[in-house]
Specification:
single chain, 485 residues, mainly alpha, two-stranded antiparallel sheet, 4% strand
Length: 485
């Protein structure tokens, strides 16, 4: 294999990150599907995994024991600050997520909730984040063990993400490492300015300030970890892989298995990961060679698995029982949008940083920067979900790439001194958002203890977590749900 071909394959660290995302697929295929589907999907997954493993590069970035310890300490401290490792409160979104973890831990798989108004119901959503901690918790110590394991599982994902974005060996000076870590933890839009403009008042200490535009949000890195690590981790890991392969490109088979693994964690994050990974596979070769690689069995094998995951996470959606203002799940353009609000949002959330980077010259910013900006421009014109989840989750990967472009420009001193000062001002103002999140974690709040109630008993049957089984091929392919008692 030529050097150019080898550079397009995973190295060991990238392989480990993909294995971390893909591991939950194994218990899912085993426990949720009847044996013919399990065998077929398992064989297809094995075909791609074998090809990717056989071709992967045996070397890994030599981070050294000292740097690994630093990254581990940062990951543990950051995750502990969220409340996932105990001691600190968890924000209100975890009242639902902890019940999901509880049901997966105490219930037999696949978890069911019994008959509903339109048919039998079962737990149905992209559960890649939860299955490993829930399964191990069920085997070791129950719900509390699963909660602790969820924090450890999250810290492992953060550790892998930090390791993937470390500077190249020739640039890995302590200052460069500290810069990347600081940006990865603290990167955010200028939410404080938006909040002051919209509310004409300063936020209270610990107040969540990211909804200053009521119908849009691009979340800060710390907000993502504290509120939605299930969406953040796959987007961070996959975006980091794209970044590492921005020059030589990425072979389609590794890209296909990475996309499949990420889709089981967060389909919405994959809305932006898909074009990024496709473009990464097109780098470093002609169109004919690219099409030839796409036709390989290791790539085609992932298409049925992706289709199976798409069918599972979308079946049996019932919105008729939701409030009237939440029944419309999708719009091409957000109904409350105005071009003035859209422009202000884009400028404050990422546009000013992007403008500063462009001052270094169009030839220096690279294709990842240009594609990230295009995605960030277009996403706010769409809406999916009652909280416009599409923008928040699909924006994670392009914002991660923008973060890495910023770190590279500052590290390599590609900006003129005046522009560099502007960049630091914008970044420091943005730090108000993660600071608010960290302050809130020091204030009194709930740990959402297990009160013995299932998700259905406490929250009803929310459409994005519970599906209704109706006659059809999918119902025949799934194992009968075991009603949670």
């Amino acid at each position: 294999m030529s050097l150019a071909r080898r550079d397009r394959q995973f190295d060991r660290l990238e392989l480990a990150a993909t294995a971390y995302l893909g591991l939950p697929l194994l218990p899912f295929l085993w426990a949720w599907w009847r044996w013919p589907v399990t065998v077929l999907a398992g064989v297809l997954l094995a075909v791609t995994a074998r090809a990717v493993f056989a071709r992967h590069r045996r070397e890994s970035p030599d981070l050294g024991a000292g740097l690994w310890l630093v990254l581990l300490a940062v990951a543990l401290l950051w995750v502990a600050s969220s409340g996932l490792l105990g001691g600190l409160p968890l924000n209100e979104d975890w009242s639902v997520r902890m019940r999901v973890l509880r049901d997966l831990t105490v219930g037999a798989w696949p978890v069911g909730y019994g008959p509903g108004p339109q048919g039998d119901t079962m737990l149905r959503f992209s559960m890649g984040y939860y299955l490993v901690p829930a399964g191990l918790g069920a085997l070791t110590g129950g719900v509390e063990a699963a909660r602790g394991l969820l924090g450890v599982w999250t810290a492992l994902g953060v550790l892998l993400a930090l390791a993937l974005v470390m500077p190249d060996r020739r640039e890995r000076q302590p200052r460069a490492v500290a810069l990347v870590i600081a940006l990865f933890v603290g990167f955010s839009g200028m939410d404080l300015v938006g909040f002051l403009l919209g509310r004409a008042a300063t936020p209270a200490l610990g107040e969540h300030i990211e909804w200053w535009t009521p119908w849009l949000q691009y979340s800060s890195q710390t907000t993502l970890l504290f509120w939605v690590p299930n969406h953040a981790l796959p987007a961070w890991l996959a975006a980091a892989v794209v970044w590492r392969h921005r020059a030589a490109g990425l072979a389609p088979a590794p890209a296909a298995i990475l996309l499949t693994a990420a889709a089981f964690w967060s389909p919405l994050a994959c809305v932006s990961l898909l074009p990024l990974l496709v473009l990464a596979t097109m780098r470093g070769q002609g169109l004919a060679d690219w099409l030839r690689e796409l036709a390989r069995p290791a790539v085609l094998a992932m298409l049925p698995v992706l289709a199976l995951l798409a069918a599972f996470v979308s079946f049996g959606i019932v919105v008729e029982e939701a409030p009237a203002d939440r029944q419309a799940l999708a719009d091409v353009v957000a109904p409350t949008a105005s071009w003035h609000a859209w422009l202000v949002f884009q400028l404050l959330e990422w546009g000013l940083v992007a403008g500063v980077l462009m001052s270094a010259g169009w030839h220096r910013v690279g294709w990842t920067f240009r594609v990230a900006c295009a995605l960030l421009l277009l996403l706010p014109l769409l809406r999916f979900g009652p909280g416009n989840d599409l923008v928040m989750r699909a924006g994670i990967a392009p914002l991660t790439l923008l973060l890495l472009c910023t770190a590279q420009a500052l590290q390599r001193r590609q900006l003129a001194p005046a522009w560099q000062r502007v960049a630091w001002v914008v970044l420091l103002v943005g730090c108000a958002t993660p600071a608010q999140e960290l302050i809130r974690q020091t204030q009194p709040g709930a740990r959402w203890p297990d009160d013995g109630r299932s998700l259905a008993q406490a929250q009803g049957r929310p459409w994005h977590y519970v599906g209704v089984l109706r006659p059809g091929l999918l119902t025949q392919a799934l194992r009968p749900p075991v009603v949670l008692r």
